[in-house]
Structures are given as structure tokens and as C-alpha cells.
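Input.
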Amino acid sequence: MTDKMKAVRLHAFGGPDVLCYEDAPTPMVNAGEVLVKVHAAGINPPDLYLRDGYRTLPPEWQPIPTFPLIPGTDISGVIATLGEGVTAFKPGDEVFAMVNFPDDLMKGSGAYAEYICVPAAQLAHKPQKLGYVEAAGAPMSLLTAWQFLINTGHDAPNPFQSFKHSPVALEGKTVMINGAAGGVGHLVVQIAKWKGARVIAVASGRHKAFLQDLGADEFIDYRLTAAESVSQKVDLVIDAVGGANMERFLKVIKPGGALYLVNPLGFAGHTIATELGITVTSTQVRSSGRQLCEAGHLLENGTLRIMLDSTFPLAHASLAHERASQGSIQGKIVLVI
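Output.
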């Protein structure tokens, strides 16, 4: 290991072309951290938002950057060095993690690189059944699904609402998932089925067989049928897409039901939801090695699967971001290092 590594860095905000594959200093491990030699890095929507300067956020939330910065949060790899005080891991351990999210939301957590320093509390041993690529596709999407559906796992203030998000019991419930084929959505489908729910998956038609294979009981091609036009009422809608007119899903939820918004910015139906007796709730995903370990057992025994949309070499991160921007993602996009 040398004092230089290859990394993808930003020197300015912009489109995929601003991602620069270049030499960067190898990070120095601090107490309570481990230095991981990265084998693969997952791509998530916040990576694209950061690259673009979070222009869709309210002005007071937009970052004041210190360039250059290395984007990315999700990694899998091998521990190279232990920092002082770390006892739960050893050099050579295969691990995966979502790194410093949302703490480094505005400056990049450093995953698009050959090496990264990770707080030991955010690490989990990689499920042996998974390769590095699949493991790198898991952390943010898996933790998002887990914290929405199973346990938030922390008491940090919720930036999206004044009350704590509290997952509802899923057994025997009917759950509609919008964006079911994406990184978060395909895991929500599987977790909901594991917990005993009946699942209605909403995605474009090309994903039908994929989602049925993951356990979806019913499929709606949103290009042919508006999801909110279904005649039956459901107990829970999980919108993993966001964007305009999220309020439309209130039409299909039973009184006393709930609407989970993975990206709640722009939702304007709180008054209507209150009148209908529907709980609208969201939460901010947070790094957790403990929860990755818990959910990792389900990856190990095959209850959950990480599906891959595509892979790209680290040097071609700009092409990976172009793919991510095209939409209709089936599973995860991963950089191979």
C-alpha cells in the first residue's frame, strides 16, 4: 500500500462528465476506524444528487463544498489496517458498509476509491454467500428498507417530520410498492413477503417476471394502468420513487393505513391524509453495522437477494452515473474496483 490510490473525485458540481478518475491521497486510519481495501462500491441516488450539487434541495440544505471530494457511501472489501481500539474485526476480514451517512451527506463519504476509512460501528462482516459486487449493492438500499419496514434503529431527530417513524406490522397486510424494481424497491418487496404481506408491485412492464420471481403477488405496469386506479384498498403504500403527485396514492389506502415516502420532498397531501385517517411518514436512513449484520443473515440464508442492474469499472464511473440517470433500473448499479 502506498500513499496514493486511484479514486473518482469531483472538482465541481455538474453532470456525469465531472467525475474524474485520478490519483488521490490514501486516507489515514484514525482511532475507532478501519482502513478497507475496496473491491466494489454501490451507486445510490444521493451520489447523483451530490454530484449535481443537491440543486433540488431547499437552499438552506444545499452543500458548501470543499473540493476535491470523493462521492459514494456503499462499499465491500477487505480490512487492510485497524485503528486504535478496534477489536471486533481483524485484518483480512471481508466486510461491507454504508459509510458516514447522512453525516457526510454534503461532502461525500469516499466510497469511489481503492481505500476508505470506515468507523468500526458502521461495518458488518460480508455474508459469505455474496460476492463483493452483490455486497456493495446492499448497504444503503437494504438499510433503507430495513429502517422503514422493520426497525429505525436509532433515536436521531427525523429531518422530514416532527415525529418518529414507526414501522407497522406487515403480516396479513396488503402492501403496494411503487418503484418495486429499483434498488430499494426490490428489497422492500422481499422483506414485505418475508414478514407475511401480500405484495402489489408497481413498475414498468419489463420488470414483471423479475418481480414475480422475487415474490410479488400482483403486478401493475404503471405505463398501462395508473396504480391509484386499482379498485381494492391497501393497508400500506411504499413509494420508493418520489417526485410529483405522490398524493395520488392516498386514493388506494384504507382508513387507518399508511403511506411511506422514501423521498418525501414535495409531498403536499398532509391535510387530505389527516382527513382520510392515513398516516404519512418518512425517515432518514442512517449507517448501522449492527443492522447490516441483522439483515445480512437474510442475505446469507437466501431469504433476501441483491439483484444487479449493471456493473462498471471504477474508471468508468461517469458511464455508471449516466446509466443511473436513465431510469427503469432493475436492482443495483455497482462499480468494480
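The chain has a mean pLDDT of 96.
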